[in-house]
Design a protein that fits this description.
Blueprint (H helix, E strand, L loop, with lengths): L2 E9 L9 E2 L1 H8 L6 E4 H12 L14 H4 L5 H9 L3 E8 L13 H10 L25 E5 L25 E2 L7 H11 L13 E5 L1 E2 L12 H4 L3 E2 L2 H13 L4 E6 L6 H4 L1 H12 L5 E4 L9 H10 L4 E8 L3 H6 L6 H15 L10 E9 L6 H16 L6 E6 L7 H5 L3 H29 L5 E11 L2 E6 L6 E4 L8 E10 L2 E6 L1
Parallel strand pairs: 1-3, 1-4, 2-7, 4-5, 5-6, 7-10, 10-11, 12-13, 13-14, 17-19
Antiparallel strand pairs: 8-9, 15-16, 15-18, 16-17, 18-19
This protein binds iron/sulfur cluster (SF4).
The site of iron/sulfur cluster has 12 residues, from helix 7.
């Protein structure tokens, strides 16, 4: 049987697979089969439609924006058609459960997959106004089996915050195939075998590979909105297994890694500092160009483990803390894990140990803050309390790498979905946009001025997309700052820049 994997990209509370990140899902799925499947992305399927609908399509037009919805295609039109025409089964990886804004990719939705897979290569071309409107495409039967897998099978998927999740419908797929395993020893053979799949991925030198160190949530009762506790009980992956996978991936050309597929990296192996050091020192010994982390439960952040991260990670990493709200009522109603005072203590601690600048121009390790809007018990005062806390961080002279503000999606199976659904989201919706704007102006910009003063030199930024004469670039890493250069530079190359100004959540810079 010939098989293809269709990567629609994944974004979960624990684990990211939206380019430039390479997620675990397509790799593990590929490792399940004896023959290596062909790797396709949702961009490939869109490209087929694009080419058939818009003659002389330009992915990166000189006077407009780069078309990120097809930027991560793996093959040219003819070859994609050939792959689809000769494939018996397409395994589709779908699941965005912590939707964000993506600079250089657009995840695929369930509806889009269904429409496009029916069309790609097997239906008459759709022309004119309807060409890029997925709703206008007629449903059609595919000549191959369609197997759905990924986070979508636990709770659904939603690409836009604040809206209802999409759930797979019976009849749209030939099979729903959850990827389950009981131990990491069981997972290791497919993880190692599937590593070869990255050889088929475009621009490997500019990608960062997500690595799994554990799954499930170590808290007895999870946060109201989170899908991690409903996916699997807590398991940690032994250091040797993680190191073995990274070594294998490096053998196929990967150089940048993030320990991001776990609910909390500080909780690794129950928070055992010796095991954490075994893991980090073993990975650092392989000399990856980037070694970063994601997801840190403030309750687990302490001096000893923070020192280990500062010692072994490459500079520019972020300990992203799911504080979610600084309003004690919301913290209580949603069983959040970070009381107000603890948030400040941990932010101060990470600043004290990781707040020095590394050789790439970024600080060694800084905290990041996640704020969620639309949680249970949220009131107008919640927004005031969140703003006041962020202002206090700023006034104390502390550094925060980024403030991530999302509108919650109540996924089925979570306590939030069962208890209040979208009630608070609907009620307070109109307040969000001006409030977010206030944060961006009054907190973010002064914070960026402190983090990256005018004249700061940042190294090794990859040019990712254009907007007319402007090139947008970022370093490869966990939460790299977005930088705009007023020059049209070739994409997918590396540059050093000097900071010249500030914009919304981004820097202006000149090439040096
Ligand atoms: S601590 Fe909360 S957000 Fe983190 S994995 Fe557990 S339930 Fe999810």
């Amino acid at each position: 049987m010939t098989r293809a994997i269709l990567d629609c990209y994944t974004d979960e509370p624990a684990g990211l697979g939206v380019p430039p990140f390479i997620g675990v899902w397509p790799r593990y799925v590929a490792g399940l089969y004896q023959d290596e499947p062909t790797y396709l992305t949702i961009d490939d399927i869109r490209l087929v439609r694009y080419v058939e609908s818009v003659p002389k399509v330009t992915i990166d037009p000189p006077a407009g924006r780069t078309h990120i919805e097809v930027l991560n295609h793996t093959r040219e039109y003819d070859e994609i058609k050939r792959v689809l025409a000769n494939t018996d089964e397409v395994v589709i990886v779908v699941g965005v459960q912590t939707p964000g804004k993506y600079l250089s990719a657009r995840p695929g939705t369930l509806r889009e997959v269904n429409k496009l897979l029916g069309v790609a290569g097997f239906q008459p071309a759709i022309r004119g106004r309807d060409a890029l409107d997925t709703k206008a495409a007629p449903p059609a039967r595919s000549p191959f089996r369609k197997v759905l897998t990924g986070p979508v099978l636990t709770g659904g998927t939603q690409f836009r915050g604040g809206t209802r999740p999409q759930l797979p419908e019976a009849g749209d797929f030939d099979e729903l195939h959850p990827l389950v395993f009981d131990t990491y020893e069981q997972l290791q053979p497919p993880a190692l075998k599937g590593a070869a799949l990255i050889g088929q991925m475009p621009r490997l030198a500019n990608r960062i590979v997500e690595i799994e160190t554990g799954r499930g949530c170590p808290r007895e009762k999870g946060c109201s909105f989170c899908t991690e506790p409903i996916k699997q009980t807590v398991l940690w992956r032994r250091p040797e297994l993680v190191i073995e996978e990274v070594k294998t991936l490096m053998g196929f050309g990967a150089r940048a890694f993030r320990l991001g597929k776990q609910s909390c990296i500080y909780s690794y192996e129950g928070g055992d500092p010796q095991k954490l050091e075994t893991l980090l020192s073993g990975l650092a010994a392989l000399k990856p160009t980037i070694l970063h982390i994601d997801n840190a439960n403030p309750m687990m952040i302490d001096e000893q483990r923070t020192k280990l991260f500062v010692k072994y990670l490459t500079p520019g990493s972020t300990a992203a803390m799911g504080i979610e709200s600084f309003d004690p009522e919301v913290t209580k109603a949603n069983n959040l894990n970070c009381p107000y005072d603890m948030a400040f203590e941990t932010i101060r601690l990470v600043n004290r140990l990781g707040g020095f600048r590394g050789e790439n121009g970024c600080h060694a390790l800084l905290p990041g803050i996640n704020i969620l809007l639309g949680l249970a018990a949220e009131t107008l005062e919640t927004l005031d309390k969140n703003f006041a806390a962020l202002k206090r961080i700023l006034d104390e002279g502390l550094l925060i790498r980024r403030i991530n503000i999302r509108r919650v999606v109540p996924f089925p199976g979570t306590p939030l979905y069962e208890q209040v659904g979208q009630k608070y989201l609907r009620r307070n919706q109109r307040l969000y946009t001006p409030w977010i704007e206030k944060i961006r102006q009054e907190i973010d910009i002064p914070m960026l001025q402190r983090l990256f003063p005018i004249g700061t030199v940042l190294k090794d930024l990859c040019s990712e997309v254009h907007n007319g004469g402007t090139t947008f670039m970022r370093q490869i890493g966990s939460y790299p700052i977005l930088v705009a250069v007023w020059e049209r530079l070739p994409l997918n190359e590396f540059f050093n820049v000097r900071v010249t100004g500030y914009r919304h959540r981004s820097l202006l810079a000149e090439r040096i």
